[in-house]
Every structure is written in C-alpha cells, then in structure tokens.
Amino acid sequence: MSQVKDPSLADKGKMSYEWARDHMQILTNTISRLKKSQPLKGLRIGICLHITKETSVLIMGAKELGADVSACAANPLSTQDDIAAFLAENGIHIYAWTGQTPEEYDWCIEQMLSHKPQILTDDGSDSHSKIHGNKKFASLKVLGGTEETTTGVIRLKALAKEKKLKYPVIAVNDAYTKHMFDNRYGTGQSTIDGYLRSMNLLFAGKRVVVAGYGWVGRGVASRCRGMGAKVCVTEVDPIRALEAHMDGFEVAPMSEAAKTGEIFITATGQTGVIRKEHILSMKSGAIMGNVGHFDVEVDAKFLLTESKSVREVRPNLDECVLKNGKSVYLVGKGRIANLVAAEGHPPEVMAQSFSNQLLSMIYIAKNHKKIGRNVITVPDEIDKQIAIDALKAMNVNMDKPTPAQIKYGQSWA
Ligand SMILES: NC(=O)c1ccc[n+]([C@@H]2O[C@H](COP(=O)([O-])OP(=O)(O)OC[C@H]3O[C@@H](n4cnc5c(N)ncnc54)[C@H](O)[C@@H]3O)[C@@H](O)[C@H]2O)c1
Ligand SMILES: N[C@@H](CCSC[C@H]1O[C@@H](n2cnc3c(=O)[nH]cnc32)[C@H](O)[C@@H]1O)C(=O)O
Description:
NAD(+) binds at residues 149-151, 214-219, 235, 338, 345. The protein is α/β, with parallel strands linked by helices. The protein has two domains: 7-178 and 345-393, Rossmann fold (3-Layer(aba) Sandwich), CATH 3.40.50; 187-340, 3-Layer(aba) Sandwich (Rossmann fold). It is 46% helix and 16% strand. The protein is built from 17 helices and 15 strands. It has helices spanning 10-21, 25-34, 53-64, 81-89, 102-113, 126-133, 150-161, 176-199, 215-226, 238-246, 254-260, 276-281, 300-305, 337-340, 347-371, 380-393, 403-410; strands at 44-49, 68-73, 93-95, 119-122, 144-147, 169-171, 207-211, 230-234, 250-251, 263-266, 287-290, 309-314, 317-321, 327-331, 375-377. The strands form two sheets. The protein has an eight-stranded mixed β-sheet, with helices on both faces. Helix 12 links the parallel strand 10 (263-266) and strand 11. Helix 1 packs across helix 4 (81-89) and helix 3 crosses helix 15. The chain is globular. The termini are far apart. Nicotinamide-adenine-dinucleotide binds at residues 149-151, 179, 183, 187, 211-217, 234-237, 240, 267-270, 273, 291-293, 336, 338.
C-alpha cells in the first residue's frame, strides 16, 4: 500500500538509515528506554515530514514503540528515494518520491490521511491545513498533532486564534532544544552544503546577502562569515536588525543589497522577499535561493516563467537569462535549498528535534483530552531532559549549583 520511486533502492536506504541511527544517540536511547512499555501501541500515526535518513529513524522508532505509521513528504523535492524504499519495505505506508508535481504532492498527503491517523506530525502544516480546509477530511478523528517548523506553528496559531483548530497541537519548533539548535546550527551548516553542491563556487570574499535574522538567518549568516564571505543582512524587525548590526554584519534594505550581492539566501518564512525589481537590479551572475519556507520568498515564478530562457546548468541550479540580458541563477527552484540540493540537517541535530517529536507524540497520546484545542509548547521537563541527554551524547560535563548558590540565587537580600 505504498508508492515510492524505486523499491529496489531499499538496501541502499537501509545503510543510510543505519548511518543516521548510529549518530542519533539521544533518539535511539529514548526509543530503547520506552520499547518495553509500548507507549504508542495500537495508535495510527500520520507523518508529513521531509523523508530523509534522519526521519526514517523517527518513523522506525514510532513503529518500535507500537504505532502503525503512514507517511508522506513535507516538500515535493526533498524525499530521499532510497529511504522511502527502505521504509516501504519495513511496513510503513509511505507515499513519497522526489520531483513531485504539486498535484502528486497533494495526492500523497491525501493517501497518508486515508490511513486515518489519530496523531498527526507535520512540518509546515500542509497536512494539518488539509484537514482544516478540505471537507473530504472533516470526519477524521485526530486526537492531536505536532508541528516541526516555525511557519507551520504560525499557521496553526492563526487557526487557533480564529477558534478553528480541531485538535491540540504541540509546537515542537518552540522547544529550546529544537529551534536554538536545528534552525540555527542545522540550517547554518546544511545551507552551506546545499549551495556548495549546487554551485560549487568559492564563498571566501563573496558578498552574501542573508534575508532575515531569526534563528535560521543567524545560523546562515554566521556560517557564511565562517567561510570568509562578506555578509549583509536584510531585516524588517528593528531589534533583529540592531542585533545583526552589533553582531558585526552590514545591514541594508534589499533594494540596496540586491545591487551588490553575489549570493542571496532568504530565511524569513515570508513572501516576496526577493522580488522582480530586486532581481532586475542584480549583477549578472548573481545566485539566489531560499532556506525559509515555500518557493515564494524568492520570486521563483518570475525567474522560471518570465525569463528569456531557463536551463539547468548543474544539478539544482537553473540559469535564468533575463529580458534585460543579465544571467542570474536559482538554487533548487526556490524551494528550501538545504533539503533540495543537499540532505538536510546532520543527524546529531535532528536527534534533538526528533526526540522532541517522539516524546510529544507520546505526550499527546496521554494528555490530548486535557490540552484542548490549543497550540502548546513542549513541556519544560521534556525540553530540559533532551538537553541533558544531548550533553551526555556529546561527552560534555557541566556544573551543578551548590545548596548555598541555590539559596543565594533565591534571596532578595
Ligand atoms: N530550511 C530549513 O531546514 C529550515 C529550518 C528551520 C526553519 N525553517 C524555516 O525558516 C523560516 C525562518 O525560521 P526562523 O526560525 O528563523 O524564524 P524567525 O521568526 O526566528 O525569523 C524570521 C526572521 O525573518 C524576518 N523577516 C520577515 N520578513 C522579512 C523580510 N521581508 N525581509 C527581511 N527579513 C524578514 C523576521 O523579522 C524574523 O527576524 C521559517 O519559514 C521556518 O519554517 C527552515
Ligand atoms: N514544508 C516546508 C517546511 C520547511 S522545512 C523546515 C524544517 O525542516 C526540518 N529539517 C531540516 N533538515 C531535515 C532533515 O534532514 N530531515 C528531516 N527534517 C529536516 C527542520 O527541522 C525544519 O524545521 C517546506 O518544505 O518549505
């Protein structure tokens, strides 16, 4: 009951799964610890995440804890086909392959939902939003859900604000052990990886423009600086712009940065951050892409449909010859470059995010009635425990406050 690109890739996928699993100690320890008690026994779990080697460790973990799992991709271009084949061979109902059309992407989400998940885990809220916006799924009885990323949480909070949210959701993104590490260090590294695989040009000495100085933007800007680039940040929030300035970055509006930038990376979750007028003012040779959310941060539609000509000059790099005669380049069709042009975040950082996911699924299973139709954060004790586990996995020791320090810290005198 699965649909993947090539089932014969399962053995390759198994090796990839094992490589990730062996570097996701926090997650695998949690799975081993809970295996005996089977906290997800008999539950149907629906997963709409990037189908990567790290995600396969989470999915196999949920299965080991007793769940019946159906899965689809959270992006039409991010599926690792060997991993999808491995999961299909291991009893997961999976509908995912890379290079989906928008219609196929939609169809796969619907197939995943056809397994009637009781707990729904999403990345970007495309499946949560389908349940809320499509009558076909109105009768689905979802006990609760989780959400992996910043933009997905924003969409769910908007539903809750309009009192339209149908079930409780845990905003996994909002855990400290998720956004401070995954969004910053994970995206920081995997963005460099994605851009390098697609363009294979030198960062050192280049003028890189990073749009957005949130968790993702900070990570990307700092890693680009580490590669020797001259980084300029664009922002709309005065506090974030001030922070970027004091972190030593140049800060400018996009209309100015566009004229001098050589590599552009958007990380805002917004729409129309790099627009037609910016693109037309860029230097010939400029390379742009996105690591925020949908393919609307950079105006990919303008580049891909209104250029004089478009050709893929390297994997995941389109040369767009504009009507003004300049050639500019788009990474990964404007979709998240770190997952489309590379393999997404490294396993160690996803171990933290996915430990939050797994423990949140279990929390929903036990507490969904108590939470009500709200978006809540990951309980503090889970967040802290993951930090403790991560330190242990990385062989890092820290101090404990002494009784005298605890007393001193609580005293007004
Ligand atoms: N590619 C990945 O693997 C990955 C990982 C984590 C998060 N994300 C996504 O990246 C996006 C950013 O996430 P975050 O956690 O950094 O969010 P955030 O809210 O911390 O930061 C977003 C920043 O963008 C700024 N911004 C908004 N509109 C802007 C504009 N027009 N120009 C310049 N700056 C603008 C905001 O002021 C804010 O500072 C979200 O869509 C999130 O879902 C992607
Ligand atoms: N559906 C949206 C979601 C944005 S992706 C952002 C999320 O991807 C997650 N992510 C990054 N790398 C990986 C990975 O390798 N495997 C699974 N998820 C990942 C990460 O936790 C982050 O919150 C879109 O495709 O545009």
